[in-house]
TrEMBL record:
<dbReference type="InterPro" id="IPR014721">
    <property type="entry name" value="Ribsml_uS5_D2-typ_fold_subgr"/>
</dbReference>
<feature type="region of interest" description="Lon-protease-like">
    <location>
        <begin position="352"/>
        <end position="455"/>
    </location>
</feature>
<keyword id="KW-0227">DNA damage</keyword>
<dbReference type="InterPro" id="IPR020568">
    <property type="entry name" value="Ribosomal_Su5_D2-typ_SF"/>
</dbReference>
<keyword id="KW-0234">DNA repair</keyword>
<dbReference type="InterPro" id="IPR041166">
    <property type="entry name" value="Rubredoxin_2"/>
</dbReference>
<dbReference type="InterPro" id="IPR027417">
    <property type="entry name" value="P-loop_NTPase"/>
</dbReference>
<dbReference type="Pfam" id="PF13541">
    <property type="entry name" value="ChlI"/>
</dbReference>
<keyword id="KW-0863">Zinc-finger</keyword>
<keyword id="KW-0862">Zinc</keyword>
<dbReference type="InterPro" id="IPR003593">
    <property type="entry name" value="AAA+_ATPase"/>
</dbReference>
<comment type="function">
    <text>Plays a role in repairing double-strand DNA breaks, probably involving stabilizing or processing branched DNA or blocked replication forks.</text>
</comment>
<keyword id="KW-0479">Metal-binding</keyword>
<keyword id="KW-0238">DNA-binding</keyword>
<keyword id="KW-0547">Nucleotide-binding</keyword>
<feature type="domain" description="RecA family profile 1">
    <location>
        <begin position="67"/>
        <end position="216"/>
    </location>
</feature>
<protein>
    <recommendedName>
        <fullName>DNA repair protein RadA</fullName>
    </recommendedName>
</protein>
Length: 455
């Protein structure tokens, strides 16, 4: 293996040469030529070798640079999920099930930003221009100043973006793009990675915000390599059940705002309408008190959201009873059932158990454990819970109730919607507003004994 050639550099002017000399031929300085140590050791074709790159300009952490300005679209729910508005030079990835409304949402967002004065480009790789215009007319956005194109060639898209210099570019979708320097079909891992990298680098260099639409797999994850989610600044998921008119835009990663923030929309004939008070909407179909229903005061991102958790417990004719959970983690349901049987002596062995979150919302917060246990016990004992009561608290494997965060915000939201009492774990930082009666429980056994009269 050939030894890499030694490089000598002048410390005065930075000129390089292949041999040492007493005087620099570029600037004329004496005794300034030094031998460079290679950046890395190894084979010449597999390592950096002796070649030098440019030196970076360093800065201190304490800087007086202002935060990047945000552009508000006027869609409050959309701006909330972005962290307060659109940040220039940001890369945003939006994923969701087919037909859930991703293209509708982003076309409405593009029109809203364009009406605020931003130059917006909407580039579709899945639909023809006539189809996008048809959707715009149906949504009442035909007069919005949004530029439209249909293309899948990445080189042509980047050339157009460089010439137009838009403030926002929406690419629908990243799986349809192809780069001519990658020898694979559109939608493959290599093509998706290369396309996402080029568009993200373009956004950072030219100050253009880029929104990418991504397909999802059967497991609900964005299709393609996970490195795409690391490249971008923000990852949003558009969720919802086909049978419900509600749609949830959830932030799972955001470098410019809080993660796990949600925006709630309602699918109507004229597009997606914002829902300013999702708690009232999720509880709007709640009628007379019935066994198996409990109201959970949860936190989604920075906002409190009240939802109804419904349970059905019925005798099972099967040897292995069924366990079904919609909107909740099935593992937490199994854990709650095990704690009720082991710590409270309430068996569910011969019963089918069905659990559902009303309205199509997906609850991932551990604070829902107490509401889940209350709904299960209410359904099993055929006893309705008080209609003016909300519940929240995490259940440990020992049966103890653990306090959860933002208790005061949960209680304020419940009081605003007409609830007058709450059940929470002991040692919770209440700060309860006036008019709200809070009962604190140390463990699940005490809760069962006080509410259902059994210990």
């Amino acid at each position: 293996m050939a030894k890499p050639s030694t490089v000598f550099t002048c410390t005065a002017c930075g000129a390089t040469q292949t041999k040492w000399s007493g005087r620099c031929e570029a600037c004329g300085a004496w005794n300034t030529i030094v031998e460079d140590v290679p950046l890395s050791a190894g084979p010449a074709k597999k390592s950096l070798g002796p070649a030098r790159g440019r030196r970076l300009a360093l800065s201190d952490l304490a800087t007086s640079e202002p935060e990047p300005p945000r552009a508000a679209s006027g869609l409050d729910e959309f701006d909330r999920v972005l962290g307060g508005g659109l940040v220039p030079a940001s890369a945003i990835l939006v994923g969701g099930d087919p037909g859930i409304g991703k293209s509708t949402l982003l076309l409405q967002a593009a029109a809203a930003f364009a009406n605020q004065g931003l130059k917006c480009l909407y580039i579709s790789g899945e639909e023809a221009s006539a189809q996008v215009r048809m959707r715009a007319r149906r949504l009442g956005l035909a007069e919005a100043p949004v530029k439209l194109a249909t293309e899948t060639d990445l080189r042509a898209i980047l050339t157009t973006l460089e010439a137009e210099k838009p403030d926002l570019a929406i690419i629908d979708s990243i799986q349809t793009l192809w780069a001519d320097m990658v020898d694979s079909a559109p939608g493959s891992v290599a093509q998706v990675r290369a396309s996402a990298h080029e568009l993200t680098v373009f956004a950072k260099r030219h100050g253009t915000a880029v929104m990418l639409v991504g397909h999802v797999t059967k497991e609900g994850q964005i299709a393609g390599p996970r490195v795409v989610e690391h490249m971008v600044d923000t990852v949003l998921y558009f969720e919802g059940e086909r049978g419900h008119q509600f749609r949830i835009l959830r932030s799972v990663k955001n470098r410019f705002g809080p993660a796990d923030e949600i925006g709630v929309f309602e699918m109507t004939g004229g597009g997606l309408a914002e829902v300013a008070n999702p708690s009232a909407l999720f509880l709007s179909e709640r009628g007379t008190p019935a066994p198996g229903a409990a109201v959970f005061a949860g936190i989604e991102g920075t906002r409190p959201v009240l939802t109804e958790i419904q349970a059905l417990v019925a005798p099972s004719p099967l040897g292995t009873p069924r366990r079904s959970a919609v909107g909740l983690d099935a593992g937490r349901l199994s854990t709650t059932l095990a704690v009720l049987e082991a710590r409270c002596g309430i068996p569910f062995a011969g019963f089918d158990v069905y659990l559902n979150v009303a309205g199509g919302l997906k609850v991932t917060e551990p604070a829902a454990d107490l509401a889940v246990a209350a709904a299960l016990l209410s359904a099993r004992e055929d006893v309705a819970l008080p209609p003016d009561c909300v519940l929240f608290g995490e259940i440990s494997l020992s049966g103890a109730l653990r306090p959860v965060a933002q208790t005061e915000n949960r209680l304020k939201e419940a009081l605003k919607l007409g609830f007058s009492s709450a059940i929470a774990p002991e040692r919770s930082k209440l700060g309860a507003p006036g008019g709200m009666k809070v009962r604190q429980m140390p463990d699940l056994t005490a809760f069962v004994g006080e509410i259902f009269g059994a210990g």
